[in-house]
């Protein structure tokens, strides 16, 4: 038996490591394509890209493990069946569950590792990765002045160049508007030609201008009229303008600003967040119920039934006064208008409180969904192994052909069910525990069914089995048709 266990484990570990790396790489490429526009032209450096790839590789591990487990189990048992090794093991009297046992233990270990990783490493990687991604997205694009277009990324300046030579430094026809005073186009510099370069480790941009003129309008501070200005014109053969490039460098944001998000917390932190939100909801409800009384100007003293006329009678000072006959129609109108305004105030107050309650409940549900995902993603590895190993034993096809197709099908099913369950749980349509566990429970039913079929050596994917059923159906309908035809003819 030990040799069989060694054979099965060796057949499983190799595909598992390979498929895990492939799936993580695929999800990493998806991340790169999603945020590609945020990386272009920012001169981030190799260290920033390396950190992003490492962090987001770790982030994709929890979602990659179920798919990798499904693929590896399909390939492992499909290869064993394709090379008749599984048939020989069954022929020797060893049941299929005994063949699955060593890899079942391994899959259980993967589930435990997945929970630990999702609860410990993933929150840290989410905090590091998304905080760094935020800094990258808010970083300005590197200096790129184009011909004939005003460039406004330098704070307080607008720059236009008529012609830019191939060396990237020599310029012709330069116009620079200085808007640092926020008073419009009162400071303009025009030069025939110039050079553009950086200095002091790219911290400053230098424009060296030749044969130009600077035009400035000075307001006369002594004059009472704001329209009186003094025009100044300065010509130069050579001038030098220096601009700081501090706004172009990437600045790191304090990571504590991102710790509030559910993705950045472990099970304990999420449980505390859920409890604190529920306590806030209870406190808000008590306060709102206490303050609702201010919208009423009466209190009911007694409520009793008139058994003779079968009516409920409300008695109280406010009720008694207003139930008296009113001869003055103006007073009656005032009473009804006052009642309507009070009812409208109560309705608006109720709607506002209801929106607050819905918002807080949704926040609590989000945190609760994320907390349960620590467990469901781990259990999904076990469920996917059950499906993959059973189907691999039935299909008996290895490689990347049929296993990949089946894996993608079940992974899409799991993803769709997960999205639906999360949406219903967050919107309180179903209980959170039902919404988050629904995908695993449905897929578990598939796994048990396929395991039952694999134990009984069912031929689910053999075309000749379905040809027999189709022939039987054709024969049945032909017989029914002939009987009906003979009855009508008689």
From the helix content, strand content and strand pairing, which structural class follows? Answer: alpha+beta
What is the succession of H and E elements?
HHHHHEEEEEHEEHHHHH
Radius of gyration: 37 Å
Number of helix segments? 11
Structure description:
This protein has 490 residues and is an alpha+beta fold. Among the domains are: 157-248, no CATH class; 263-368. The chain is built from eleven helices and seven strands. The strands form two sheets. The protein has a five-stranded antiparallel β-sheet with strand order 1-2-3-4-5, with no helix packed on it. A hairpin with a 5-residue loop joins strand 1 (157-164) and strand 2. Helix 3 (46-82) crosses helix 8 (329-395), helix 3 packs across helix 9 (402-426) and helix 8 (329-395) runs antiparallel to helix 9.
List keywords for this structure.
490 residues; alpha+beta; 7 strands; 15% strand; extended
Structure summarized in a few sentences:
With 490 residues, this protein is α+β, with helices and mostly antiparallel strands.
């Amino acid at each position: 038996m030990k040799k069989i266990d060694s054979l099965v484990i060796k057949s499983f570990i190799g595909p598992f490591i390979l498929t895990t790396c492939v799936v993580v790489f695929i999800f990493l490429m998806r991340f790169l394509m999603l945020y590609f526009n945020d990386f272009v032209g920012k001169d981030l450096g190799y260290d920033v890209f390396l950190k992003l790839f490492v962090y987001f590789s770790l982030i994709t591990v929890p979602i990659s493990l179920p798919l990798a487990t499904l693929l590896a189990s399909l390939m492992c048992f499909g290869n064993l069946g394709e090379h008749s090794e599984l048939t020989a093991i069954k022929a020797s009297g060893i049941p299929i569950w005994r063949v699955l046992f060593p890899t079942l233990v391994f899959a259980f270990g993967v589930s435990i590792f997945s929970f630990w990783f999702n609860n410990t490493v993933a929150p840290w990687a989410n905090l590091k990765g998304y905080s760094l991604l935020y800094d990258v997205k808010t970083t300005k694009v590197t200096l790129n002045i184009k011909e004939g277009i005003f460039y406004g990324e330098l704070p307080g300046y607008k720059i236009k160049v008529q012609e830019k030579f191939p060396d990237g430094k020599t310029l012709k026809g330069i116009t620079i508007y200085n808007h640092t005073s926020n008073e419009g186009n009162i400071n303009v510099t025009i030069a025939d030609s110039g050079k553009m370069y950086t200095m002091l480790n790219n911290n400053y941009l230098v424009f060296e201008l030749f044969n130009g003129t600077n035009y400035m309008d000075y307001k006369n501070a002594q004059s009472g009229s704001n329209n009186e200005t003094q025009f100044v014109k300065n010509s130069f053969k050579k001038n030098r303008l220096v601009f700081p490039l501090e706004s172009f460098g990437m600045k790191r944001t304090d990571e504590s600003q991102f710790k509030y998000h559910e993705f950045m917390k472990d099970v304990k932190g999420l449980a505390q967040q859920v409890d604190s939100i529920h306590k806030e909801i209870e406190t808000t409800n008590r306060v709102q119920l206490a303050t609702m009384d201010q919208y009423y100007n009466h209190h009911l003293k007694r409520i009793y039934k008139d058994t003779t006329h079968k009516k409920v009678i409300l008695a109280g000072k406010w009720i008694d006064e207003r139930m008296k006959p009113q001869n003055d129609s103006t007073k009656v109108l005032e009473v009804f208008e006052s009642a309507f305004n009070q009812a409208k105030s109560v309705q608006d107050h109720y709607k506002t409180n209801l929106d607050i309650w819905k918002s807080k409940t949704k926040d609590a549900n989000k945190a609760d969904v994320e907390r349960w995902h620590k467990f469901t993603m781990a259990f999904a590895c076990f469920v996917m192994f059950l499906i993959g190993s059973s189907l691999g034993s039935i299909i008996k096809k290895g490689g990347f052909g049929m296993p990949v197709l089946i894996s993608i099908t079940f992974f899409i099913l799991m993803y769709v069910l997960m999205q639906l369950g999360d949406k219903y749980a967050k919107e309180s349509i179903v209980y959170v525990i039902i919404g988050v566990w629904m995908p695993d429970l449905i897929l578990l039913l598939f796994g048990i069914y396929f395991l039952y079929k694999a134990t009984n050596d069912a031929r689910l994917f053999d075309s000749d089995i379905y040809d027999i059923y189709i022939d039987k159906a054709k024969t049945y309908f032909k017989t029914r048709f002939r009987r009906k035809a003979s009855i009508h003819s008689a």
